Amino acid sequence: MSTATITAPIGKTGADEGRIGLRGNLRHIGALVRRNLVQIKNDPETLFDVLLMPIIFILLFVYVFGGAIAGKGNQQEYVQYLVPGMMAMMGMNVAMAVGTGVNEDFRKGVMDRFRTMPIARSSVLIAKIVVEILRMLLATTILLAMGLLLGLEIRGSLLEFAGSVLLSTVFGAALMWIFILLGLSVKTPQAVQGMAMLVLMPLQFGSSIFAPTTSMPGWLEGFTKVNPLSNLADAARALINGQGAVAHPALITLGWTVVITAVTMPLAVRKFRSKT
Question: What is the pTM of this model?
Answer without folding.
Answer: 0.84
